[in-house]
Amino acid sequence: MYEWLKAFHIIAVIAWMAGMLYLPRLFVYHCATEPGERQSETFKVMERRLLKFIINPAMIATWLLGLWLIWLMGWDGFRQSGWLHLKLVLVFLMSGVHGMLSRYVKDFAADANRKSQKFYRIINEVPTILMVLIVILAVVKPF
Asked: What angle do CA 41, 42, 46 make, to 5 degrees?
C-alpha cells in the first residue's frame, strides 16, 4: 500500500506544481490588460478555476497523502530523517506561496492588482526553486 500512496502523492505534487507554475504566468499576462476588458475577465475566470479546481485540491491531496506516508514511516523513522524535516519546512513555504497566489487571484478578481509584470515574473521562480530543493531532498536524502 505504501507504494500506491507514494504514487498518488507524486501525482498530487505534479498537479500542484503545474498550477503553481502556471498561475503567476497568467498574472503576467493579466497585468497587460485593462480592468473590465474582455480579456481581463477571461483571465479572472481562468485564474479562479485553476486555483479552485486544480491547485487547491492538489495541495490538499499532497498534504494528506504526505502526512499519511509519514505516519506509515513511524515516529522512529521520522525522527531519524533530517532530510524530511527540511522538506517539510520547504513544503510549508510552498504552502505560504500558495496562499499568497490565492490572495493575488482575489486582487485581480476585484480589479485591485497593484503588482507589476516584473513582480509576477520573479514570483514565478519561487515555486520552481522550492520544488527543485524539495525533490532533491526527497530523492537524494542527503542527511
From this structure: 120
> What single letter denotes the amino acid at residue 110?
A
Q: Give the single-character DSSP code of 80.
A: T
Among residues 91, 118, 90, 114, the alpha carbon closest in space to that of 104 is found at: 114
Cell of 133: 530543493
User: How many structural domains are present in the chain?
Assistant: 1
The confidence band for 115, taking pLDDT boundaries of 50, 70 and 90, is very high
Containing structural domain, residue 89: 2-140
Question: Which cell is 139 given?
Answer: 530523492
Mean pLDDT of 58-70: 98
Q: Which residue has the cell 532533491?
A: 136
Please, which residues have CB within 8 angstroms of residue 76's CB and are 6 or more apart in sequence? none
Mean pLDDT value of segment 53-58 = 98
C-alpha cell read off for 40: 481581463
